[in-house]
Design goal:
The complex is a heterodimer of chains A (241) and B (349).
Chain A: E1 5-16, E2 19-30, E3 34-39, H1 45-52, E4 60-65, E5 68-69, H2 74-79, E6 81-84, H3 96-106, H4 111-125, H5 140-151, E7 158-162, H6 170-185, E8 189-194, H7 197-200, E9 205-210, E10 213-218, H8 220-226, H9 232-240
Parallel strand pairs in A: 3-8, 3-9, 6-7, 7-8
Antiparallel strand pairs in A: 1-2, 1-4, 4-5, 9-10
Helix pairs in contact in A: 3-4, 5-6
Chain B: H1 2-19, E1 27-33, H2 38-49, E2 53-59, H3 62-70, E3 76-80, H4 84-89, E4 94-101, H5 105-130, E5 139-146, H6 153-184, H7 186-191, H8 197-226, H9 235-259, H10 263-279, H11 292-297, H12 302-316, H13 320-344
Parallel strand pairs in B: 1-2, 1-3, 4-5
Antiparallel strand pairs in B: 3-4
Helix pairs in contact in B: 1-10, 6-8, 6-9, 6-10, 6-12, 8-9, 9-10, 9-12, 9-13, 12-13
Classes of the chains: A alpha/beta (241), B alpha/beta (349).
């Protein structure tokens, strides 16, 4: 079976004035893969994600996501991706159910599908008691799990996660990663940025961005061997220096 | 933001000190001259030479004057009867009739006062010229306050305040809205969804439109039942205009929301414009009393058109025909501003 590539980026570049935030990055991501997109703060991860999700134009280079050109076919691209950022994506003054209904509606789910999805999410995350509670009143760790479930409410081909676990405790992070594995098993490709190096070790493949360029790309084992390191922390420090 | 901080006090001082002026000037007067005599012509000349009055038509027809006052073109009608010249010269009793548009009771009182003084002066001058030793009766003046005979100032203010209420609520709610989503980050989430721009803007407009209409209804109920403001025109017409007007104001708010990054900035801009719009709307001070350049500026002020319409419809019973220009301007502006807001709301940077 030929491996399907759901993201193909070729020399993707974005400049802001004289500053090059993303500098000719090329990579591809296979279907069902968990792709770790790593880098220090300010390395250009968020800029890259914004281009791949169609909310920022690229300055040069090409990329297709889920088969759609990131500059030319934005609407169809957006129908096929999910997105969750570190900034909050749920409406705090709506309840869990209302948030699901709202986002489901935007993605064109009908009422029966929304009801089915709501049931699934509530059951999977064990949220029976708070399904009618305002998001504002729910603890952060739960909110992030809910945000992830909402981001994939429409079964996208790819979900982009921008620092999804910043600010939560290790147990919740662990649970969050279980959700990510579950999504990947269901065929959803996961594109995740993080600055927790231990989380990088959960990814199938890792790319490391330094000053706008991809300096390293491969599986955990490949990177460890190549950089003669025992952990991603070491790889990171060697590259970022 | 920074240029606005410097420009705001200058602009507000410059514009508002000239426009927020309670002095009554430029009173538009129509003279119904049924005498066509030397004396009536002299009186008309004297009135048009006065600083306070602008002569807006002379004719023998009363209907013409009535039509003009009904359409807000003039403030006062002076009616000179037949045989005015003959009766005055022979020392007989003469009387002039003044009717003022008393919707703004303050302005009407002052206008009538000015006019009475002119007539009194005129009467003594003419009597002196004729060498009349004694002015027996002079010229009697009969006054009428139209549309608001009791000179109830609330009839003038309450409809205007309703305009204020609707405008402020719509402007601030919509102005704070998109920018709030920028602050909390949900806008980014919406931008990665396939939602269309027009769907987004309609979704933002609709709830506030309903709130605006609801607020207007409360205002109208209080005006009618508590302040006993008359409702001579069609309520449906008023609602229709309010609907279009709300779309315009919400569009302005939306536009502000798209060009700002924080609620603070949006609030600042919304506040800046609403102060200017309100004080230049004719709500408190008559537009006709403003300097000509300021009067021209009011043509870009949406509140001005609504204040005019609400007073015309409620107090004068004006029909669609009389307010069609205001309707056209507000409709056009609403389309334009909302189009700008949609164009300016960028899902992609």
């Amino acid at each position: 079976m030929i491996e399907e590539k759901v993201i193909i980026a070729k020399d993707l570049t974005r400049t802001f004035g004289k500053f090059t935030a993303v500098d000719h990055i090329s990579f591809d991501v296979k279907r069902g893969e968990i792709f770790g997109f790593l880098g220090a703060n300010g390395a250009g991860k968020t800029t890259a994600i914004k281009m791949l999700t169609g909310i920022l134009s690229s300055s040069s280079g090409q990329a297709t996501v889920a088969g759609f050109d990131i500059n030319k076919d934005r609407n169809r691209l957006k129908e096929n991706i999910g997105y969750m950022s570190q900034k909050f994506s749920l409406y705090e003054d709506l309840t869990l159910k209302e948030n699901i209904k709202f986002y489901g509606g935007i993605y064109g789910l009908n009422n029966a599908e929304i009801a089915k999805k709501t049931g699934e999410i509530v059951e999977r995350l064990d949220l029976q008691e708070i399904e009618n509670t305002l998001i504002a009143e729910i603890p952060l760790g739960w909110k992030q799990k809910i945000a992830f479930s909402v981001a994939i409410v429409h079964n996208p081909k790819i979900v982009f996660l921008d620092e999804p676990t910043s600010g939560v405790d290790p147990i919740t992070r662990r649970q969050f990663w279980n959700l990510i594995y579950e999504a990947a098993e269901n065929g959803i490709t996961v594109f995740v940025t993080t600055h927790y190096m231990d989380e990088a070790e959960y990814c199938d493949r890792i790319s490391m961005m330094v000053e706008g360029r991809i300096e390293a790309l491969g599986s955990l084992q490949e990177l460890l061997t190549k950089y003669e390191a025992t952990s991603m922390d070491e790889v990171f420090i060697k590259l970022a220096r | 933001m920074k240029p606005l901080l410097i420009a705001m006090p200058i602009i507000q001082l410059a514009i508002l000190s000239y426009t927020a002026d309670f002095t009554v000037r430029n009173i538009n007067i129509f003279v119904q001259d049924q005498d066509h005599s030397v004396l009536s012509q002299k009186l008309i000349n004297k009135i048009s030479a006065s600083d306070n009055f602008i002569l807006n038509g002379v004719s023998a027809s009363y209907d013409e004057g009535f039509d003009k006052i009904q359409k807000n073109k003039i403030d006062v009608i002076l009616s000179i009867p037949e045989h005015f010249n003959r009766d005055f010269n022979s020392g007989r009793h003469t009387s002039l009739f003044i009717a003022a548009d008393a919707i703004n009771s303050n302005k009407a009182g002052i206008s009538i006062n000015y006019l009475q003084n002119i007539i009194k002066d005129f009467s003594s001058e003419q009597a002196a010229k004729k060498g009349m030793i004694e002015i027996r009766s002079g010229i009697e003046v009969v006054k009428r306050n139209w549309y608001n005979p009791a000179l109830n100032y609330k009839f003038f203010m309450v409809p205007g305040i309703m305009v204020l209420l609707v405008t402020m609520i719509a402007l601030f709610l919509s102005g704070m809205n998109i920018v709030r989503e920028k602050e909390i980050g949900t806008i980014e989430q919406l931008n990665v969804t396939p939602i269309k721009k027009y769907q987004f803007i309609i979704g933002k407009l609709l709830p506030f439109l309903i709130i605006g209409i609801f607020e207007f209804t409360i205002g109208l109920a209080v005006a009618l039942w508590w302040f006993k403001v008359p409702m001579l025109g069609s309520i449906t017409l008023l609602y229709l205009f309010t609907f279009v007007y709300l779309i315009l104001i919400l569009g302005i708010g939306m536009f502000i929301s798209t060009i700002t990054e924080t609620q603070q900035q949006a609030l600042f801009i919304a506040w800046f414009f609403s102060v200017i719009f309100i004080l230049m709307s004719g709500l408190f001070t008559p537009i006709e009393s403003m300097p000509v350049w300021a009067q021209k500026l009011t043509l870009f002020n949406p509140i001005r058109y609504y204040v005019e319409v609400i007073r015309l419809v409620m107090l004068k019973g004006s029909s669609f025909i009389s307010i069609k220009l205001n309707f056209a301007i507000i409709t056009f502006a609403a389309l334009l501003v909302n189009m700008l807001a949609i164009l300016n709301y960028r899902k992609t940077a």
